[in-house]
């Protein structure tokens, strides 16, 4: 997808009531967005799809809804006060601010693009005989690019780990990296910048306590670990799932709802016996990838990206990356977080955070596998992959949102062919019957073809049309958004017919 196509995603999201810039009448607020009537339904459906998969389908995973405000010691214990930083660099000429690591990664990505170009050329030249593995390991230019990539990333990771920001700047200068906007190479030093938003609790300035808006939902789960385990009498392994808002003062907040300052996470912490974490890490990688694939966009949209630079608390980490309009980017993180968080909270609170395992008669601090996905980012993934300009067999075109039916904002549109002859009344009766089970919409304005197109553009998977034949034999047509085929069925069978399409068994039965 090109830049133009991404612009198309943005304008479609606004025009059809999915996403609006926040406080738009005041020119908006950077990297903050509001969800419109269609957006809020799509977002809720994604959240439910995740929630049902995590909690209903796993007897040993329970839910939680912790507060956004937490005791400030939480963030000291978790490491966010000291280490939740981005390395920033400013360009003195353009006055633009960048993440230093992103500038370097973008440079290595360009080397990778050169590699891909060579591969493409060679594939064309050698045809069926092309052996990609052999080519990339022997072709001198490709070997050189890959070696450079590796060396650059290794040096960057090492400098960041050692907090050697002078070397990060030196690397940017050695690579001759220019400001992508102005082309200038006049850089400031690299500085660390904490991403948490601060606020105050209390009425008077002297007595106010400094608080943070949570930058992840996970810590609400960790501090409640024993409350949940004891009240629900859970045995390890078990998980706690939560969805909710998180806040980060992102510096490079571009790409629409991909990187926001206020966003929503869907996180699950899975508590396991120490020593078994790698086995569970692999299991959760597989379970989560299957969840994504159950939506039917196709395997080519997903890939794993294992982390080279592990966070201080992790002993393994991978991202599920999605093919966004601007390339493969992180959609979900799966992390093996060891016993870091529980041990830290034990240390800072002075309260034991251990579990007695009756099976082995031992007390220990559990290890944790975390699955963490951004709800807004998932929204963008679904939205951008679903939006299509389709050319039909007769040469005409239509804009259609092929949103997986289970996630679609409106499930069924009920349309009387004409605004008269008693057809609207029948349509209203049908709605009164269906509205208990599905989000249904009535539309009688304009010719039927235009109404179908309107529903296509917001991703409604089924349109039920009431016509004159309905009056004779109590049947209606049901039009499928994707195939545009219509079938005629009795009104009496409509509810059951549609219910079958949204049965979770058919979606999540993996
Ligand atoms: N508890 C672990 C954690 O928060 P993370 O990789 O920082 O890990 C997890 O975030 C997920 O949250 C990401 O994969 C992404 O989907 C989403 N996310 C993170 N920052 C975001 C932002 N600024 N805007 C939208 N989504 C974001």
What does this entry look like structurally?
- This protein is an alpha+beta fold.
- It folds into 3 domains: 1-68 and 210-305 and 314-389, Bira Bifunctional Protein, Domain 2 (BirA Bifunctional Protein, domain 2); 85-194, Herpes Virus-1; 410-508, Rossmann fold.
- It has a 7-stranded mixed sheet. A 5-stranded mixed sheet has the order 20-19-21-22-23, sandwiched between helices.
- A hairpin with a 6-residue loop joins strand 4 (85-90) and strand 5 (97-99).
- Helix 7 (140-161) runs antiparallel to helix 8 (165-174).
- The mean pLDDT is 95.
- Bound molecules: glycyl-adenosine-5'-phosphate (GAP).
- The site of glycyl-adenosine-5'-phosphate has 19 residues, from strand 10, strand 13, strand 16 and helix 13.
Write the layout of secondary structure elements.
Blueprint: H1 3-15, E1 19-21, E2 33-35, H2 37-56, E3 61-63, H3 73-77, H4 80-83, E4 85-90, E5 97-99, H5 100-126, H6 132-138, H7 140-161, H8 165-174, E6 191-194, E7 198-201, E8 209-212, H9 218-223, H10 225-231, E9 238-247, E10 262-272, H11 277-293, E11 302-306, E12 316-324, E13 327-338, H12 340-349, E14 355-357, E15 362-364, E16 367-374, H13 375-386, E17 387-391, E18 397-401, E19 412-416, H14 423-434, E20 440-442, H15 448-458, E21 462-466, H16 468-473, E22 475-480, E23 486-490, H17 491-501, H18 504-508
Parallel strand pairs: 3-9, 19-20, 19-21
Antiparallel strand pairs: 1-2, 4-5, 4-6, 7-8, 9-10, 10-16, 11-12, 12-13, 13-16, 14-15, 17-18, 21-22, 22-23
Helix pairs in contact: 2-13, 5-7, 5-8, 7-8
Bound molecules: glycyl-adenosine-5'-phosphate.
Glycyl-adenosine-5'-phosphate (GAP) binds at residues 216, 218, 248, 250, 259-260, 263, 265, 267, 330-333, 370, 372-374, 376-377.
């Amino acid at each position: 997808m090109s830049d133009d196509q991404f612009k198309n995603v943005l304008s479609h999201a606004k025009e059809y009531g999915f996403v609006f810039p926040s406080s738009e009448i005041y020119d908006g607020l950077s990297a903050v967005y509001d969800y419109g009537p269609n957006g809020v339904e799509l977002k809720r459906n994604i959240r439910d799809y995740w929630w049902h998969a995590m909690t209903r389908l796993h007897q040993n995973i329970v839910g939680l809804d912790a507060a956004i405000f937490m005791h400030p010691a939480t963030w000291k214990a978790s490491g966010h006060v000291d280490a939740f930083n981005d390395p920033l660099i400013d360009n003195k000429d353009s006055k633009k601010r960048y993440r230093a690591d992103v500038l370097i990664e973008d440079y290595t990505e360009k080397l990778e693009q050169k590699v891909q170009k060579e591969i493409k050329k060679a594939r064309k030249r050698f045809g069926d005989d092309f052996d990609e593995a052999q080519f990339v390991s022997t072709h001198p230019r490709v070997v050189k690019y890959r070696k450079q990539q590796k060396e650059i990333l290794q040096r960057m990771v090492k400098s960041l780990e050692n907090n050697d920001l002078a070397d990060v700047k030196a690397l940017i200068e050695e690579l001759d990296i220019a400001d992508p906007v102005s082309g200038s190479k006049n850089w400031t030093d690299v500085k660390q910048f904490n991403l948490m938003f601060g606020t105050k609790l209390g009425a008077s300035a002297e007595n106010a306590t400094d608080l943070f808006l949570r930058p992840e939902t996970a810590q609400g789960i960790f501090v409640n670990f024993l409350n949940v385990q004891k009240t629900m009498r859970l045995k390890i392994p078990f998980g706690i799932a939560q969805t909710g808002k998180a806040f980060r003062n992102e510096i490079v907040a571009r790409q629409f709802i991909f990187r926001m300052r206020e966003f929503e996470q869907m996180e699950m912490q899975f508590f396991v016996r120490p020593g078994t974490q790698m086995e569970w890490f692999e299991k959760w990688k597989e379970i989560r990838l299957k969840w994504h694939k159950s939506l039917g966009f196709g395997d080519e949209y997903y890939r794993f990206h294992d982390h080279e630079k592990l966070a201080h608390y992790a002993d393994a980490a991978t991202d599920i990356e999605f093919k966004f309009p601007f390339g493969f980017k992180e959609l979900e993180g799966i992390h093996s977080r060891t016993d870091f968080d529980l041990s830290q909270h034990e240390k800072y609170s002075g309260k034991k955070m251990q579990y007695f395992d009756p099976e082995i008669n031992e007390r220990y601090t559990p290890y944790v596998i975390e699955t963490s996905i951004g709800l807004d980012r998932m929204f963008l993934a679904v939205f951008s992959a679903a939006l299509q300009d389709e050319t039909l067999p007769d040469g005409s075109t239509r804009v259609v949102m092929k949103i997986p039916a289970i996630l679609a904002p409106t499930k069924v549109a009920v349309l009387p062919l004409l605004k008269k002859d008693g057809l609207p009344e029948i349509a209203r009766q049908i709605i009164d019957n269906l509205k208990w089970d599905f989000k249904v919409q009535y539309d009688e304005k304009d010719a039927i073809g235009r109404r179908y197109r309107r529903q296509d553009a917001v991703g409604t998977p089924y349109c039920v049309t009431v016509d004159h034949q309905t009056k004779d034999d109590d049947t209606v047509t049901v039009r499928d958004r994707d195939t545009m085929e219509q079938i005629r069925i009795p009104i009496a069978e409509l509810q059951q017919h549609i219910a079958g399409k949204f049965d979770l068994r058919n979606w999540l039965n993996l």
